[in-house]
């Protein structure tokens, strides 16, 4: 307990106290990092900023702990508990890093210059400018895909950013208040209380579980008049939900959802959406297809990722990227194919791995090692050149011998440093919350040994794993306090 307390106290102290930093050094190579998500932030955490003039660009000045975002939609977790100001992260580096809150709208890979736009509501005299770079790391993530399905963009809520979670939280209560309005018709009440989630990946499943919890644990008690008509439905085009998990965990999730009274509509592909109705094509057991209509009050769209406009624009400028659809194709060292000195990581890079936080984190750590190594290599090369010059200048045989020994040692160190391996991903497993205090886990140990587990103990593991992964001691404490608050007082049912 004492060690725990000591660790906590140190964490709090460290969070509060910025270090004395060296100023940025414009004579060094400028390394621009785009984004403040999992990939970019794990790179920034590990990189030695003294070796470069580091500039970070992101339209959001914080890191968001996305695994707990579904919990924000129902107020189980308050949004500020999972946000970490980027400045808190950057103020702990030994050499200072420049940050601009802006969106990078264009990358010119030939002239090596970026176009930046200030997207904040308050506009200064300069809203757009350019920034040259020597090295560039693109970690801008992805946007929600709608597959161009009509009506989705206009009518659905998404679940990627804090603002999305806040919008969903307001919409849930809006639907409930309108459904219980005086003299509301039965049909309209049923529609407004039908909460539909499209996409049976982890995002859709976790959100559906959280929403059903909100209903069972709080809404049912405080708004009893909705008890019979409030329903959560999960719509998935494939024959089952969570295709990345094992068969056993898929069946467990589907059974738990049945017990929780969440309707799962598999083999149901949404084709069109309007303000009040979802139109979907159902594949029946005999293989024939049927169109169905689903009236809804809230629609949450979670069907995966698409490339952002800045990434698509860059891809169109590089012939080697012509065939890529999902994002920037990279080589084994994460260099964007067809470019020099431009790397991509996380959801904006098209690799053989799923676009997860785990992959992005490991890619960020890898790139930090790569940049630290590049700097070390350059320093050693410069040292060797300098020693060789001294060797030529001196006439003394003893000095020549000593210098030769030193050069040999440096050359050996240089050979060791240059041996950087290509990026390799180590999958540690997948976790997902499925509602009613249950979670599923597909864990990988050692040489690819697998362990699957599900239920309430797994939920405790899920909680402890996520708390330990939270960015700062402050985040960890806030998340634990949010869970305690909900245990003691329930969730807030105000709008
Ligand atoms: P996803 O790509 O994993 O799942 C989207 C689902 O939507 C697919 O199963 C697809 O069949 C379905 N779909 C697509 N179009 C449809 C339509 N028109 N009608 C009905 N269904 C349709 O998306 P996600 O859940 O947003 O996840 C994105 C990535 O993030 C994945 O790699 C995922 O593994 C990762 N992620 C992981 C976790 C976790 O591990 N807990 C949580 C969230 C996200």
Task: Write a compact overview of the structure shown.
The protein is of the alpha/beta class and 495 residues long.
Task: Describe the SSE topology.
Elements: H1 2-16, E1 30-34, H2 38-46, E2 53-58, E3 62-64, H3 69-72, E4 83-85, H4 86-90, E5 98-101, E6 103-108, E7 113-117, E8 128-132, E9 135-138, E10 143-144, H5 152-155, H6 162-179, H7 186-192, E11 194-198, H8 202-222, E12 231-235, H9 247-260, E13 263-265, E14 268-273, E15 277-283, E16 289-295, E17 298-301, E18 305-306, H10 309-317, E19 328-329, E20 342-344, E21 349-350, H11 357-393, H12 397-418, E22 429-435, E23 438-445, E24 449-455, H13 456-469, H14 473-489
Parallel strand pairs: 1-2, 1-9, 2-5, 9-20, 11-12, 11-17, 12-13, 19-21
Antiparallel strand pairs: 3-4, 6-7, 7-8, 10-18, 14-15, 15-16, 22-23, 23-24
Helix pairs in contact: 2-11, 6-7, 11-12
Bound molecules: nicotinamide-adenine-dinucleotide.
């Amino acid at each position: 307990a004492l060690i725990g307390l000591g660790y906590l106290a140190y964490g709090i102290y460290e969070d509060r106290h910025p270090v004395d930093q060296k100023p940025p050094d414009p004579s060094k190579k400028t390394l621009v990092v785009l984004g403040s998500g999992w990939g970019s932030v794990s790179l920034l955490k590990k990189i030695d900023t003294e070796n470069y003039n580091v500039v970070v660009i992101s339209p959001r000045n914080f890191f968001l702990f996305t695994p707990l975002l579904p919990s924000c939609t129902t107020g189980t977790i308050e949004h500020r508990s999972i946000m970490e100001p980027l400045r808190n992260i950057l103020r702990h580096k030994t050499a200072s890093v420049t940050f601009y809150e802006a969106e990078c709208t264009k990358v010119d890979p030939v002239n090596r210059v970026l176009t930046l736009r200030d997207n904040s509501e308050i506009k200064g005299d300069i809203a757009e400018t350019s920034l040259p770079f020597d090295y560039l790391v693109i970690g801008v993530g992805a946007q929600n895909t709608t597959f161009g399905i009509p009506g989705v963009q206009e009518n659905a809520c998404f679940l990627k950013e804090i603002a999305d979670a806040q919008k969903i939280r307001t919409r849930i209560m809006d639907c409930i208040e309108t459904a219980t309005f005086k003299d509301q018709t039965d049909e309209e009440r049923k529609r407004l209380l039908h909460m539909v989630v499209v996409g049976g990946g982890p995002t859709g499943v976790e959100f559906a579980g959280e929403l059903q919890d909100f209903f069972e644990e709080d809404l049912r008690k405080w708004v009893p008049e909705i008890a019979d008509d409030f329903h959560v439905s999960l719509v998935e085009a494939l024959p089952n939900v969570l295709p990345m998990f094992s068969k056993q965990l898929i069946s467990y999730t589907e059974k738990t959802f049945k017990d929780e009274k969440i309707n799962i509509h598999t083999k149901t592909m949404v084709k069109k959406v309007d303000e009040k109705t979802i139109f979907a094509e159902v594949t029946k057991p005999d293989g024939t297809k049927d169109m169905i209509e689903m009236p809804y009050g809230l629609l949450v769209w979670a069907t995966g990722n698409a490339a952002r406009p800045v990434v698509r624009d860059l891809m169109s400028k590089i012939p080697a990227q012509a065939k890529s659809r999902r994002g920037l194709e990279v080589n084994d060292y994460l260099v964007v194919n067809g470019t020099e000195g431009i790397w991509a990581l996380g959801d904006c890079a098209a690799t053989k791995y799923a676009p997860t936080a785990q992959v992005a984190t490991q890619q960020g750590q890898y790139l930090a090692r790569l940049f630290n190594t590049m700097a070390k290599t350059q320093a050693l090369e410069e040292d060797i050149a300098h020693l060789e010059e001294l060797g030529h200048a001196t006439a003394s045989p003893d000095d020549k011998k000593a210098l030769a020994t030193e050069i040999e040692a440096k050359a050996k160190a240089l050979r060791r440093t240059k041996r950087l391996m290509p990026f390799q991903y180590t999958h540690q497993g997948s976790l997902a919350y499925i509602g009613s205090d249950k979670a599923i886990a597909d864990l990988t140990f050692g040489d690819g040994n697998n362990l699957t587990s599900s239920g309430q103990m797994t939920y405790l593991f899920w909680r402890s794993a996520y708390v330990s992964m939270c960015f700062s001691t402050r985040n960890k404490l806030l998340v634990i306090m949010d869970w305690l608050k909900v245990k003691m007082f329930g969730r807030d049912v105000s709008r």
